[in-house]
Design a protein that fits this description.
3 helices; 71% helix; mainly alpha
Amino acid sequence: MATRTREKFATQVDAEILSAVRGIAQTEGRQIQALVDEALADLIEKRKQGRPRDHVMAAYRASHDKFAPLYKKLAE
């Protein structure tokens, strides 16, 4: 795997969001920069596609397959 060039940047984040991200990083044993990379990559993918991400649609389809009769009755 090729090493990617990393670049530093500074920004400000809501204190509650940063606290939650720090908690996630600690719980998962990951660095905050890894979570930031993941979040930014997800944002880029979401904006590029202009549609829900594949795993979101897969969950929707699975739910629809399982509960289609119920959803139909609720719609009536």
